[in-house]
Amino acid sequence: MPSSSTAGGRMQGPSTFDKWKMGAMLGGSVGLIMGFIFGGFNIIRYGAGPNGPMRTLGQYMLGSGATFGYAAQLSSRFPLQAQSAET
């Protein structure tokens, strides 16, 4: 997200909600990719089962995407860098 300037001319970073959205989208996309990799591996190794390969792969992807997305959006709330106090 681009930074927006305020009336005083100081640059302001992304809001808390923007950080939350970015964390959820990043975690969700990583989770989908990981679900695709692990789900595909498990389907090849153990078979798809009664649901078929596409539904089973989709369940792996959605479950992994939701888990990673939730964890990443929660962790994006906490700052990783010390913020300098400018006065």
Automatic annotation (TrEMBL):
The keyword Disulfide bond does not apply. It is found in: Membrane. It comes from the Eukaryota. One of its GO terms (biological process) is protein import into mitochondrial matrix. InterPro entries: Romo1/Mgr2 (IPR018450). Belongs to the MGR2 family. The chain crosses the membrane at residues 20-44. Pfam families: Romo1. GO terms for cellular component: TIM23 mitochondrial import inner membrane translocase complex. Its main location: membrane. It comes from Lepraria neglecta. The keyword Membrane applies. Keywords: Membrane, Transmembrane, Transmembrane helix. Coiled coil: none annotated. This is Reactive oxygen species modulator 1.
